[in-house]
Specification:
Length: 92
């Protein structure tokens, strides 16, 4: 990951919800996905392949929506976290 990006991600504040706002609709679809663009494009490295499953570290999500856009099968149920949860952006 780009070192400058990593530094900027440390500026974010998270209020982690117990309930994930990112849901994989069908793991079988992910296992058949050749390029797995969600893993390669997510700037916060939320997605990882472990064994035969796509793992989702939703607590790291910066709510950019890239995963939803790049999934060729629309297999990610992406929504904003519940009110009061998620990322708070700081400028500076």
């Amino acid at each position: 990951m780009n070192e400058g990006l990593v530094d900027k991600l440390y500026l974010l504040k998270y209020e982690v919800d117990e309930e994930s706002h990112l849901v994989i609709k069908d793991q079988k679809v992910c296992s058949e996905c050749e390029h797995k663009p969600c893993i390669n494009r997510c700037p916060a490295e939320v997605y990882s392949w472990e064994g035969d499953r796509l793992q989702v570290a939703y607590e790291n999500c910066v709510e950019c929506g890239v995963c939803k856009i790049v999934c060729p099968y629309e297999n990610i149920d992406w929504r904003y976290p519940r009110g009061g949860y998620g990322v708070s952006f700081k400028f500076g």
